[in-house]
Write a structure and sequence with these properties.
The complex is a heterotrimer of chains A (166), B (289) and C (926). With 289 residues, chain B is of the alpha+beta class. Chain B has three domains: 47 residues, 2-Layer Sandwich (Uridine Diphospho-n-acetylenolpyruvylglucosamine Reductase, domain 2); 115 residues, 2-Layer Sandwich (Uridine Diphospho-n-acetylenolpyruvylglucosamine Reductase, domain 3); 109 residues, Enolase-like, domain 1. Chain B is built from twelve helices and 14 strands. In chain B, strands 4-5-10-6-7 form a five-stranded antiparallel β-sheet. In chain B, strands 11-12-13-14 form a four-stranded antiparallel β-sheet, sandwiched between helices. A three-stranded parallel β-sheet of chain B has the order 1-3-2, with helices on one face. Chain C has an eight-stranded antiparallel barrel. A seven-stranded mixed β-sheet of chain C has the order 3-5-1-12-9-10-11. A six-stranded mixed β-sheet of chain C has the order 7-15-14-13-8-29. In chain C, helix 11 packs parallel to helix 19 and helix 15 runs parallel beside helix 16. Chain C starts with 36 loop residues before the first helix and ends with a strand.
Chain lengths: 166, 289, 926
Amino acid sequence: MSKHTIELTINGLRHTADVEARVSLSDFLREDAGYTGVHVGCDHGVCGACTVIVDGKAVRSCLMLAVQAHGADITTVEGLAEPGGALHPVQETMAQEYGLQCGFCTPGIVMTMAALTGEGKRPTEEQLIDAMSGHLCRCTGYQGIRRAVRKLVAADTGETVDGGAA
Amino acid sequence: MKPAPFDYVAPSSIEEACAVLAEAHGGATVLAGGQTLMPLLNLRMSQPFILVDLANIAELKGVTRVDGGIRIGPMTRQCDAIDNKVLAHDLPVLVQALRHVGHHHTRNRGTVGGSIALGEPAAELPAAAVALKATIEVRSVRGTRQVPAAEFYIGPYMTVLEPDELVTGIRFPEWSLGHVTLFCELAQRPGDFALVGLVGALAIDSGKVARAGLAWFAMGPTPMRAKTAEQLLSGQSLAEIDPQAVAESAIADTAPFDDAQASADYRRTVGTRLFARTLREALNVTEAA
Amino acid sequence: MNAPDRRAGANAGAEPAGRPHAGSGRYIGQRVRRKEDARLLTGRGQFVDDIALPGMLHVAFVRSPIARGRILGIDLDVARDVPGVHAIYTQQDLAHFNVDMLSFYLVSPEVETTPLANGRVAYVGEPVALVIADSRPIAEDAASLVVVDYAEEDPVVTIDDARSGPPVHPGCDDNIAAEMGEQEIDEDLQALLEGAPHLIRHRVVHQRISQSPMETRGVVVSREGAEELTLYITCQSPHLVARWVSLALGLPPGAIRVIAKDVGGGFGLKNHPWKEETAVILAALMFNRPLKWIEDRYENLIAANQAREQEMVLQVALDDDGRLLASHGDYSVNNGAFPQLSECNIAVHMFVWAAYRMPRYGFLTRGWYSNTIGYAAYRGPWAMESLIRETALDVAARRIGIDPIELRRRNLVTLQDQPTTSCMDLPLEDITPAECLEKLLAAFDVAAFRREQAAARKEGRYLGLGIATYIEPTGAAGAITTMTGELAQVRIEPTGKVTATMSTHSQGHGTATTMAQIFADRLGVPYEDVTVFEGDSSRGGFSPGAAGSRQGVIAGGAAIMAADLLAAKFRQLAAHLLDTSVDAIVIDEGMVRVDGAPDKCRPFADIACIAYGEPDRLPPGFEAGLEAQYRYQPPPMTFSSAANACVVEVDADTGFVRILRWISSEDCGNVINPAVVEGQIAGGLAQAIGMVLLEEVRFDARGNPLAATYKDYHLPAIADIPEFEFVHAGTASQSVGGMRGCGEGGAIIGAPTLVNAIADALAPFGEVPVDLPLTPTKLLSLIEGRDLSAKTVDDQHHFIADHPVTVPVSAAAESAPQAPQPAAAPTAEALVDGDWKMVLSTPMGPQEMTGHFETRGQALAGYLSSPEGQMDFTGSVDGANLKFDLKVDKPMKITLKYTLAVTGDKIAGKCKMGIFGSAKVTGQRA
């Protein structure tokens, strides 16, 4: 089994590591880099819990090898909030809208929302919901997630929306 | 659920990649976007000795216009193809099909060539290639060959690709501007395997169908070309088309199976209806335009 | 989040009059932001896979690829040589632990159950060997190299197979895992059914379900020296796991600490350890290194216990006005090979008509062993009762020609009818399904919908309305060993902040939030100043955690009581320090004031500091510190009620169902946090939608699981779930705080609501067979009037009655074991008379008692005594065989029929407990 030296940026920090070819990006992020906020819910690319942002795009980290991330810029859920502790708007919105219960699927959902909103992006509600269809949540029935999506879309388009939970 | 051990190489040219494949004598597997391969590796359903990652081969990426048609590099990511202006202009139905491939996240990594080369019978892109009469360019150390998409697929996940061969391009012929596009997919949840799917295009000349390309997905062991329906439509004026009759001829060219998602009978029954519905709606749109 | 109004209820510390009620306060009843979210949203939660200990090794299992067979040999040689492999264990290595694989009720299993396969395998995925290695990938490499030689046998897969197939467990006469009720419908009931103007015979087939928490099972075990064991395990109660491990492994309880800070959902799967977790614990004890096993999703779908897979036929007799006359239920559930509980689900029959005025009900209920994964709980394990009743009522309404709402109005038990008892003798005092229904109808215009439906049908569009009502037992405590009260321990720290330690446990329930709301309200402190700890068996006290919709009800009561004790103590001290009366003390926003004396005030924290640090300033006899605890024992059961409505459109071309609207009208009593309650209801409803439309664990004829990944096991995704609308009925319960449970209701009421809507939409085509999931293929078959289902799959749509049970309950099983007859039989008097220490193994846990027997010829007299009291009986004796009956009133009026046999100093036999089936009796001379 071949071993490879990879260099990458995770949450703004440079990392160099030697990895075996078969190590997935999700296992690398959790076990080597220590970002245990990356949750592995299925390890076959369906549940979405392990979603991270790679070079600006939301991807399943269980469907990438660590060696494929050589040279990549990666953000995990640990890298979203400001170092001082203020939550990212997506995290804040999810908390306000009760978008989580057990919190296991949450990091992935938050990362998809973060990848698709902010920085002048103008997603439609339909686009965000379509992206959310790649996430499984067994607790919430998606009620708060849907409300959070609506609120984020409104924030990105500058429209106001009747906030607060149902 | 961790992969069995393997070696990993990421060649930087097609020649180099072909050389690795040739030397591996069938023990190598090509890694494109990995969105189907990685689960198979994790489940140890695929246990290659060498994984050959094509990500570093620049010439395998991108969409270009070539003598009247379009050439797509197989390592073009699905998300990039969706955003590609040339495709949106020349082959809108392909973009429509691309939007239905997997989920947002898998489209961010998955490639056009990966899906085409895999040959999943319920997948959108192989059927689109068959319907739109694409040619698949295949390379190995033994040389280059051009395989019509309709001849590329021989069974579920089975293609004419030899173990030492690599897909290096997918060429779509020109479909005249304003051609009628047909796309319909029925799946239980977004991103699921289709229960019934169809994709196609009708090139129109002076109010008549000059050329028809139609194929089903999830309706047989491979993408199923609706050849009889294509012949029926060719030369017909748009006003004369009887969608129901075309649908019934199209369904004759399917060989659906029973699986956990739906029965063969279901697929035939619903397939006929969706075909007729999709054709009717497409013609209405064309008429109104 | 809106900041709660800090002023409202500023005198929250005041003693409430009479029974403490939560009502609504500054925080109670408010949508307060969750305490759990900050860590979970930033990836700082602590789930079991996040634990890494020095020296920790990793475990993978070798699993059976066949559903049934003998193990001829296990060859570990090649696997052991893989670099990085430390040890491989089989059951032979673990046998000396003699683990007792207890049920949730802490009862020993009915059939031999071992952590790893013991000479035989009984389902695909059964763990056969355990590999310990440096990493999980290496452990999997080695597991794939273990060679197991099997002699494969034909498996028993379905309930139908189990009825006629060879016993799954050697030594059993048949595949009946548990049975209660009457084998044949009694004549009176039969006459009522047959003589009724309308008899509905309604059949429901419920598929097998994977609980599918997003976090799979997993455990990290660390042995510290000979006497201490620390477990990090994803579970529903660290306290229950500690108790289970202590009893199952025979370890001293003090040695075990179980930690589960964050858990990614449980839903019944994680009540207590099962085969794999137990094997890892034993392996860690043997190998003396910390071990980690994290179940992957493939293992979770093929080898974690599963739920449902039931068939039921309900007969319902009604008169011409739609009034219920009589009913009979015949229920079967697939228990798999090694159920976490040999289950025939008596609760289905207890609750099926509990909310309706049903004069007469009889039943037969059975659990069947099969060569599949074992049975475990899933949110609302008895939910079949609501599914079959509510769908049967709609069938009846269509048959008789009555509006389904009117049919319910005529038969539901209303508040005016109570107190009353159900047809199964369940006492009812304050159930409100009829009231929930009226509140639901106030929020939904049925007449307008019917007009819309009629108009749509003319266009070939099929809209349907489904309505269902139910009651749910919640917060049960006292009847079952493990279903106890809850403990709250709370202290005001010297800093003035409040710290509470609870027996609760959250797998997403948000108990740290809801309990903090209660403490903040009752102590008059800001919510931000309250911290609630849970999730560690070394903190707080025993409770089963999340099981039976109980935590809000019982722990909420405990929190109120403990907080009130502490508030009283604080106020006593404050009054002393401020030189005023207790009644004049007002606590407001971190300040303590004296009513009517604005100049007298002190920071809350100052008083707290004095309580700990300045003993000279305390009132005489005042115990230093500010700490209190209360274990709340609630009423035996608290009922929640609900009525739901949903509107669907079924595409008649494809058989696809689209849910257009859904309203929940639920009575959860006083609501601590509406957002949390709605979250529970919504989550349950989503699971119900999955059950009706999407999810299914299937096996082929050889017992191979066909849904081994999430590509094949379809959980509902965001597009499948509508936005729910909520009506809270809010009738305070009898328990402290007035709460009612809300954990399982959505999962129970959701299925019949949706099925009824689909059936209403498709009524023009006939009755929808309720065979879940209602796939597009099944619905289109009804629409087309022909069977479109797969021809390559065995059609199992037979009525239970079409397959009369051919497995006779053997005479041997019915009567007591026969005592061996010695050549010269001693007299009965010598054999029997005297005192015996006996144990009755009931489904609710073992009951110890002393039996006193006196014989006179063939007559027997005596008594049974237990801590609950002494009961006399008379009976008969035949040699060494005894028979006697006892009538008991609790938990309901039943006659216990004992048949026992004496062998030397041992006594053994059975006790038939009416509808509760038979229990084993064992004992010896006292």
